[in-house]
Write a structure and sequence with these properties.
By secondary structure, the protein is α+β, with helices and mostly antiparallel strands. The strands form 2 sheets. It has a 7-stranded mixed beta sheet. It has a two-stranded antiparallel ribbon with strand order 4-7.
Length: 144
């Protein structure tokens, strides 16, 4: 009977740890050799909120948006507290448009890509210049 309780407790601990790791694991984006830990958003409410009200990103962090289909998605700086670079990507993870150093004060202006995109990466302002990002560069997305 005692070994059954120990087994049950061990299984419970393993399940709790697995859930914790699953929900706290960050995905990664590799762009021009720079690795970013990204928060992936794909639900409608998360896509709409984005980084609004979010704490300041670290230089190796970002938010990665995944849409249902390629389109010309607009982004604004509503409720933002820090400047960002916005990078639009097509379905093959190729950079199709970049807006650099967007300030919170630009709200309510909406920024659009020049081409349809399926993914968007938001990083701290200045990162795209720092890594010498160009239209046509590709990223590698590693989902955890």
């Amino acid at each position: 009977m005692r070994s059954d309780k120990i087994f049950f407790i061990l299984v419970a601990v393993v399940v709790i740890l697995a859930i914790f790791v699953r929900y706290n694991a960050k995905s990664e984006v590799i762009l021009n050799g720079k690795v970013f830990q990204v928060e992936v958003v794909s639900t409608q409410s998360a896509l709409e909120k984005g980084l609004s009200g979010h704490k300041l990103l670290e230089v190796n962090q970002g938010m990665f948006f995944i849409f249902q289909k390629p389109d010309n998605y607009g982004f604004w700086m509503k409720d933002m507290t820090f400047p960002i670079d916005i990078i639009w990507l097509d379905s093959s993870f190729k950079v199709v448009h970049v807006e650099k150093s967007l300030l919170p004060e630009t709200y309510p202006k909406t920024f659009y890509s020049n081409a349809p995109s399926l993914y968007v990466l938001e990083v701290l302002a200045g990162i795209s210049d720092k890594i010498n990002l160009k239209i046509g560069d590709t990223i590698k997305f590693i989902k955890n």
